[in-house]
Amino acid sequence: MLGEMRRTQQQLNRLFSGLRLGAAQDFPPVNVWVSAEGALLTASVPGVPVDQIDVTVHQNTLTLRGKRDPEAVDEQAVVHRQERVHGPFSRTVVLPFRVDSDKVSARCERGVLIAELPRPAADKPRQIKIASA
Predict the structure, then answer these.
(1) What is the pTM of this model?
(2) Structural domains counted in the chain
């Protein structure tokens, strides 16, 4: 009886593995800070290998794509609760200014992707001196 229940649970898990119930969450969650020099974006990507993350920038739009693999568990284990999603993801962030794509840098530290997005020099605000008459 217990073996049959386990098999049924596994079949249901496979059936609903790609379905997300409840409120949709954007993954990965991001924070963006903006200054006169540019922007700084951080994204929480725990468990995602760096080689499975793709960052692209075009004008004022940053797109973050990747894939988080499912966690390896014992085949006999039955899911009791599963909140961490897996599979492909994509996030697009529109910034309030163009980005100098040649100077963008990105790194990953302890599961957090950090992207520095500088403005082109021509687009940075300039202080104008006023000449006296």
Answers:
(1) 0.71
(2) 1
